[in-house]
Structure formats: structure tokens, C-alpha cells
Amino acid sequence: MVATNAVLHHREASAHARRVTDLAPHPHRADREAAVHVLLAQSSLIASPFIAIRLLLGSALRALMFLLGKDFNASGDEVKAVLSVALHPKRLAESRHRIHQTSTEPVSVVNSLRPRLAWQLRQTFEALIGIASTSESAATLSVSAGETGPTDGESDYLDVSSSGLLKRILWRPSVIMVLSLMVFAIIATHALWWGDGVLQGGVLLPTPDGATDLWDMYTQGWHDVGPGSSTPAPPYLLTLFAASAAFLGKSALVVQIVMLLGLAFAGWAAYFTLRGVIVSKPVRVWAAVMYAVLPSVTGAMTAGRLGTVIAAIAFPFAVRSCVRLATSTASVRRAAGTALLLSILIAAIPLFWLIALIFALALGITSWRRDAQGSKRLLKRLAIAIIGPVILLAPWSLQWFVQPVRCLIGSAEHNLSDPDLSPISVFLVHPGGPGMTPVWITAGLVVAGLLALLRRDRSMQIALAVGLSIVGLMFAILQTIVMVTPPGATDAIRPWPGPATLVWGAGLILAAALGADGLRQTMGGASFSLEQPLAVVVTVIAVLTPLGSAVLWLPTAADELQKAPASAVPAFVAADSVGPQAPRTLMLRQAGAGQVLYTLLNGPGAVLGDADMAPPGDVWLPLDADVAALASGRGGSEIAHLSGYGVRYISLVRGTSTDLIPILDGEPGLRRLSSEAGEVLWGIDGVTSRARLITDGVATELDVVGGTPEFMAAVGVGTTPYLDQKIAAATTERQLVVGELANSKWNAVAIDQATGEETSLEPVTLQGALNWSQAFVVPKDAVHVRVTFSQTMRSLWMWLQLIVFIVLVVLALPARRVDEIDPDVEGSGFPAEAVRHE
Predict the structure, then answer these.
(1) Residue 263 host element (H or E)
(2) Which residues of 78-92 are buried (b: 16+ CB within 10 A; e: fewer)?
(3) Is residue 679 part of a domain?
(4) 141: Cβ–Cβ under 8 A, 6 or more apart, which residues?
(5) Dihedral sign, Cα of residue 57, residue 63, residue 64, residue 65
(6) I need a labelling partner for 791 at 20 to 30 A (CA). Which of 124, 289, 694, 705 fits?
(7) Are 76 and 200 part of one and the same domain?
(8) Is 819 inside a domain boundary?
(9) pTM for this one?
């Protein structure tokens, strides 16, 4: 068979959808099938099975990529091409036979012509670096001006720039800025990078070692917090779980990096998202550095407010996406991407959903009044962006509507707030709390942001930035006025206005940057007036503001955080707490005259997320009375009540006043176990296991399944099953006390030893000190009982989240687009004068 060059040319063109041919109705499928067939036919007998597996996996991955790129035809062609080769082994065998009969050279002679893996990885790395450093030209390969014509294949492996890749990367303003911020952050927190233990302190609880622990905490329907809780886990645990995948599951390392380098990441996020908005690179650098050292960011790092640090990194991306969503060219893809970004932001700080809702309502109402018919597309996109995160984060997000106070409080970040914070401090971008610089240091930022309104040629953009900041200021001032009772607490507190102040400061920075961008050229051709010296003074103050903030924050950067063991109790208590009976520990701390604070501890110590999963506040009222009686030394029934909660140990926290020691020493039923380095430990006599079996008023200790000691230390006592134990028969009915807060999802069954038949046990409410716990009636002849907590509803919510997430990701992904130059089209390819006959 003779094939001319024209036929070959048209065959190649048809594979790229530039020719229509009756011989191949599906050119992509035919091209892929031919490629797979040729590669397998040319491979050696030993290598062919491995090549076949690689091609199969590669085709599956390519089909998935086509599917995500919404190119369903190409995805189907990819699968059908591989199947066609696999289902016709006879054709492949015939091809291999012909090649074996006619080949004069081995296939290895062409291996050197294929692009090496190192070169492909380098191209990918350069593209990613270009995107991360906001370089407009780094996404494509640069071409040296010294190339005057075609070169041989070896030139492809030469350095594409005379200065070298490393030098080109390091000399970019964004890289210099981020590296400088990282060095500064490392210097400020140098004492926290080394040493044994886990990063903790302030409002930051120790992080479990493994990412799977975070996943288990998030997927559990019942949480081992206090006397037990069914409060949904906060979704920022899922964000940390995903980030931990890049660090081989080291979740504690991820939290340490985010907390200690948070300002550097926030600065990079601000610089990256300002591309295309601020032309001047010095202005962009100033805006990014100013954003990185905002008191909300540095204060959050000092106090261990992980949610605010995550929000500071995600906020610039969410704002940029929201602004693009409001344009007339925005699509459903943009709305889905915005919903995903807002989900990350809202998972850390719920307040941002209220801010996004306010702007969506304002934009929707304005658009509707202007053009009711034409605004439907915009309203549809806004609905996806606002409602999408609520559904994706359910059931955690549904608590906002039942308890709106959760939006003001945030993710357990209300501790360490300043009760005497004034609205003036918030106006000067200071939310109060640890790690604050003097309030006057950011006055220059406020002045620069508000004076930017005087620039007329960018009045609309600056007004929008100031409008955003004012919304944040309103919420920040509100949080300095109101007193709220956090879920899981009984006392009212003042919320920390850090996230709202972050919005206020970010809006001022954006307004000031918009006002300064191009100001030199604008004023250069204008006649002299008062505006020129005023602009110089404001510029000098604005430049000095981030420098002053950084220098003044440096001495206080590590005041609250520390590296310490995750366990808050002695080693033998920690070992007992993850044992078969899983006893609890009551931690006492005297906060002042007549005030005692306590924590009901499960396992060795509290872990990240526990504060967000606490049970309702009224659950603690009986314990409040017992602890008050214990601290008063009245010698009543409080010890019996505490043992009913499974409390086996009472610990006086190190550094607490010693006034409580003689009181507890004289308490009947308590015995001192140890006293070391200011930490005193007592033990409670009697039955102190969580689960117990009561027969004729006499309690017997039962063991819980719990899980492995590592699982119980990080996640808590497992509930599938919670208890699975054989018991002795009795002459009367008994009561099985679970030792966990009563909930309708607890189930208990009696198992027949002979047949294995399960009989459900009837729940019962006990009287007296155990009325808080879930309990069941056990028949007198039952000898094997099992207790579980139903995970059905939690599983359904997880499936809903997965479906919504997949839908949003698929909608947010760009559709596959192929832009190829057709050499047959006039004006494409080489110019006519460059082609000549030899």
C-alpha cells in the first residue's frame, strides 16, 4: 500500500479535528487506538505486560481528566480505544509477528528521542513557580533571542535563560517578599520550632499526630468531650486533613507551619490576588506586607487562633473570586469556585458567611432594581455561591440558624478576648488580646485608606473597598458591645473581633493601594497644590506602618504558644484513661478569689477541635454545683456525684493557688496520690468506671471497647461498639449505665449465647446522680450486652457533603479547550518567505 505525504498530512489533521473523514468518524479514538497498538506491538515480550498496565492506568486517568474537563466524547473515545486494542489480541499478535520478521534495529534506538521525565518535571515546576510568583511569562517556556533559526534536538535540553532558573525565581519581588516574611516569622517564633512536644497554648489545643485522627474526629457522630457530645465536628478539621496529605499525614506539623508562618502565607495570598488590580509592584508589595502584619493576623498567631490564621490566608482569594462573580461575564463555573473558596473561609470563621450574605443581598437588590429581567443570571450565580457552602458544610452550618451567636463567636476563639476593648481600638484596626501592638501604630493605615476616597479617577473601585471595610468595622464594633453566651458554656463573654477587624483592615489596605497605584504619573503632570505634599506625608506614614507593626510585635510573638507534651496528666493517669474502664479526670484551677474553673477531661488531654464540639451549656449545671461544693469543703454528696460521671482523678493544675489543697485533702472519699512540681493529684474511692451495671442498688464496673490506646488518646472512646461484654445472670432486672450523655441514638442489645439472637434493651432514665447518663434495663437472664451509637445520620450527611463537593468541583473546573494552529490556514505557521526549495 502506498500512502502519499498528502494522505498522511490529512490523517494527522483529522486526528486534531481539522478534517472530516469517512474512514474515521471518531478521529481521537482512532488516533489513540493506533498509538496504543503501535506501542504494544513494538515493545519487547518482557516489557509488554508492564507497558500494558501503564497504558491502562494512563488511559483511565486521561479519561477522568477529560470527564472533569467536561469533554465527554473524548473521555469515551479514550476508554473505547484501549478496550478495542484489548478485545482484539489477534491483531496485536499479527503486528508483533510482522515487526519481528521485518525489523532490522531494536526498539531501543528510538528511546533517546522521547522527552525525558526530568525535562517534563522541570517544565511543570517552572509553570507552577510562575503561577505562584504571579509572573505573567513563567507559565510558558521562554525563548532566547539568540536563537536565529531551527536547531537540533539537543538545544531543547539547554537552559532557557542565561541567568538560570534559580536566579530568575529568587529575583522576583513576590519571592523576595515572601522569603523575607518567612525569615521574620521564623525569627519571631524561633523558640517554638524546636523541642519535644506539640505546639499549644493560648486558645490552641494540641493537634493529633496523624491525619487519620482528624478524619476519625470529623466522621464520628459522637464525640468524647466532657460527658459526651453529639455536636457536629467543625469542618476546618477536614481542611487540615486535606493539607496533611501533602506532609505524609503529619497533621501536627501542618498546624505548626500554618501557625508560625501564617503571616508569610497571608502576605503571599494578598500579593497573588492583587495581580491585575494593582499595577505597581512596590504598591503590591506594601499592601501584601501591611496585610501580613495586621494586628488581627499577628495577634491570632500569638494567641493560637488557628481559625483566624486560616481565614487570613483564604480571605484574599475569596474576595477576588467574589468580585469576579459580580461581573457580567461571570459563569456558573465562577460561582462554583467561589462557593468552594467561601466554604474554606467559612469553615474557619462563620462570620464571613454573614459578610458574604450582606454583599450578595446588596448586589442582588441593586441589579434587580436596575434590570429585573437581566439580573436573573446574576442572582443564580449568587445563590450558588452563598447557599453552596451552607449545604456543603451541613450539618455544622445549620447550627447558625438555631444559634446565630456561633457566627459572632467563631471557632472556639472567644477565649483571651479583651473585655475592656473600646470601639476606638477597633477603629484603629486593633482587636485586642495577646500579641497587640500600640493602637497608634496603625493610625497611618486608617488615614491612608480613607484619604484614598479623594482620588476621583478610581472612585468606584475605592468606594467598593471602603464599603467592604465598613461592613467589617460594623461587625467589629458590635462584638465590642454585646455579651454572648457561647454554646457549651454557661457564662456570657465578649466575642473576639479579630476576623471582623481583619476585614476592616484589608478593605483599608485595598483602598490605599488603589489610591497609590499610578498616583505618581497622575500627579506628575498636574500643577502644584496641597495634594502633592499631603500625598508624600501619607505615603511615608503608610510605608512606616508595617515596619513599625512588625518591630513592635516581635518581642510578644511567642508569649502564649509553647511546645509541650500533649498529655495534661501524669503518665500513669494517661495510661489508665485509655484503658478498659476509660475513667475521666477533673482538672481544677483557681482563677481568682472565690472563682474555680474546671475541665472534665477524657483521655490524656484535650485535642484540637474539642472546644468546638462541647455539649450544650445546660449539661454542665449539675457539675457546676458539684465542683462548687467540692471547693467549699462542705463534705456532702459531691464525691459520689463525680464518681457517677466516671471521674477517678482530681488534679490541681500547676501554678494554681494552694488554697484548695487542704480543702481537698480533708474531703471524704478523696486520697492524695501525688504532689510534684506544684501539681497535686487526688484519687476517688469506689466505682469510678464510665460504664457500670447496677443490681439492687450496687454498682459493678464494666469495660468499654473504646479502641486502641492511640485512637482513644487522639479521638476518644469509640462507639461502634461502645461496650461489648459478658455479664453474670441475676435474679432481678438490672440497669446498664452507659456513662455518656443521654441521646436517642444510643442502642443496646442483649445477645443470646446459644442462638446469637439480639434483643433490644429498653432505655430508662435513672434518678439521682446518674440521671444525666444514658441507661438501659437489662433482663435478669441476659449474659451478653452490646452498646453502640448509631452513625446512620452522620453517614448520610457525609454522603451529602461528598456529592455536593463533587458537583461544585466539576462545575468549577474549566472545560477542556484545544487551541491548535492549523498549518493550512493562511497566516498560520511559518511565513511564506521562510519556506524555500533546496
Answers:
(1) helix 262-273
(2) bbbbbebbeeeeeeb
(3) yes
(4) 123, 126, 160
(5) positive
(6) 694
(7) no
(8) no
(9) 0.82
